[in-house]
Amino acid sequence: DDPDVKTAGALRALVEQRDFSALMDCFSGPIEFGTAGLRGVLGPGPSKMNEATVCRAAAGLARQIIAEVVNARERGVVVGRDARRGSAEMATAVAEVLSGHGVTVHWIPDAAPTPLSAFAGRHLNAAAIAIVTASHNPPEYNGLKVYSERWCQIISPQDRTIRELGDASGPIKALPRLAFDEALASGQIMPLS
Predict the structure, then answer these.
(1) How far apart are CA 23 and CA 28, in angstroms?
(2) Residue 193: which pLDDT band, with cuts at 50, 70 and 90?
């Protein structure tokens, strides 16, 4: 159910090699929310940070804000990223899933410091902020930091709700997802300058 051909291929290779130890590591459990988001080593499977992991989280976030935040679709979500490996691809996936749920995306087109994305959310009165970053973690890590409509890091129960709604959203490849260029052309993704 992985939409990324690279990580899906890496899993297939592990199966073909019968590398059960590595497969156990990839499937030892989903990354849990902690310190306002998801953080983990890049790689394939639900135990790692990858496109599938952030797509599921983005679906949960979209469903949570639509259900609980007034005018969430119109207020939108600021999506930013840092310059870590995989950040651009994962931020694009987050934007596509949010757009597929009818949520306006305020897109920061270049790598930017986390506080800039947080400020943009406050400035725009966004319903949430999603930033692909692992802050000070080693380079093999990446993450997805989420801020609430109050423009501060999410806390319980919002993190738990996002996880539950993401888990209940069905297969990742079947999630509502609008291709980036299409969302950009329709105004569903609005670049910030």
Answers:
(1) 8
(2) confident
Separation CA 53–CA 73 (nearest Å): 22
How far, in Å, CA of 106 to CA of 130, rounded? Answer: 10
SS3 content of the chain, % helix, strand, coil (to 5): 45, 15, 40
Among residues 21, 28, 87, 135, the one annotated as catalytic is 135
pTM of the model: 0.95
**Chain centre distance of CA 56:** 7
Give the tens place of pLDDT for each residue, 9-24: 999 999 999 999 999 9
- CB-side neighbour CA atoms (13 Å) of 69: 26
Instruction: Identify whether 135 is a catalytic site residue.
Output: yes
In the numeric block, the tokens 């609008």 are attached to 178
The packing angle between helices 158-167 and 51-68, to 10°, is 120
